[in-house]
Design brief:
This protein is of the alpha/beta class. 38% of the residues lie in helices and 20% in strands. It contains six helices and five strands, in the order βαβαβαβαβαα. It has helices at 15-24, 47-57, 73-80, 92-108, 128-136, 147-150, and strands at 3-8, 30-36, 64-69, 84-89, 113-118. It has a five-stranded parallel beta sheet with strand order 3-2-1-4-5, with helices on both faces. The model has no long low-confidence stretch (mean pLDDT 95).
């Protein structure tokens, strides 16, 4: 089985994230969305909320699972039996950063390969950081978000 981990913070889930997942679906037998828990980061949304968004968005897609994890991503791959890590690339600068991480992961475990998908042009400006800033200032972030996320943002 081709099992893939799509790791990230997903704070919040954006159309850029779902674009990468949707286009990766034909490539893998299972995609596990791994919401990384980093004690040094203060997310805007709870891990439970972020997991629920993915569950709502992909409720009819049996190839998608969502979990939280901490520690090294490449170690979590071993735990779940994933031989691939999926990463989305928006800009050249993303690639440079992501390649460094992929090289480190390959050094730690040669059985895990990183697969990069470039985002669709209409999603290149979509970043969770920007969306959080829009929400903090009571702006309309709906052009960047899936419907399941928009429905839950009444208090932001």
């Amino acid at each position: 089985m081709r099992v893939c981990l799509f790791p990230g913070t997903f704070d919040p889930v954006t159309l850029g994230h779902t674009d990468i997942i949707n286009r990766a679906l034909p490539l893998f037998d299972k995609i596990i969305v791994g919401i990384g828990i980093n004690p040094s980061k203060e997310p805007m949304f709870s891990a439970e909320q972020r997991m629920q968004w993915f569950r709502d968005i992909y409720k009819d897609e049996p190839k998608i699972e969502v979990h939280t994890y901490d520690g090294l991503t490449v170690n979590y791959c071993k735990t779940i039996g994933a031989n691939f890590i999926l990463r989305g690339i928006r800009f050249v600068s993303d690639f440079e950063y992501e390649k460094t991480i992929a090289d480190a992961n390959r050094t730690l475990d040669r059985s895990v390969e990183t697969v990069f998908l470039t985002g669709e042009p209409q999603y290149t400006s979509v970043a969770s950081t920007i969306v959080r800033d829009i929400l903090r200032h009571h702006g309309d972030a709906s052009p960047f978000l899936p419907g399941a996320v928009i429905k839950t943002l009444k208090g932001y």
